[in-house]
Amino acid sequence: MERFEFTYPAQDSLPGHAQAGVVGSGDLEALYEPKAGTMLTIRVATSVDGSHGLWQRFFDHLAGVRQLPAGQLDINDFGATPGVARLRIEQVFEEASDVY
């Protein structure tokens, strides 16, 4: 199990907390917590050894194609494909933006 952290410039935080995916399902769990400021901190815990560079490129690309919200994003990965990772992250950001 590897753990690492990334920090990216961000826009305003989203109004709510959110979770997408299921940890331990052979998938990926994403948890978002809004925080004041101008940074998004991403903490990744993954079962895939040697994947730091892949995650770095993934988040570099994501930051280049969308505005990231300020706060903290926790990723618990158990071998999800990049497509599933992107889906879960977009789901958690969408859910956090919907406040009832």
From TrEMBL:
Modification O-(phosphoribosyl dephospho-coenzyme A)serine, positions: S25
Alphabetized GO MF terms: acyl carrier activity
GO cellular component, one term: cytoplasm
PTM annotation: Covalently binds the prosthetic group of malonate decarboxylase.
InterPro entries linked to this entry: Mal_deCO2ase/Cit_lyase_ACP (IPR023439), Malonate_deCO2ase_dsu (IPR009662)
Family: Belongs to the MdcC family.
Annotated function: Subunit of malonate decarboxylase, it is an acyl carrier protein to which acetyl and malonyl thioester residues are bound via a 2'-(5''-phosphoribosyl)-3'-dephospho-CoA prosthetic group and turn over during the catalytic mechanism.
Protein name: Malonate decarboxylase acyl carrier protein
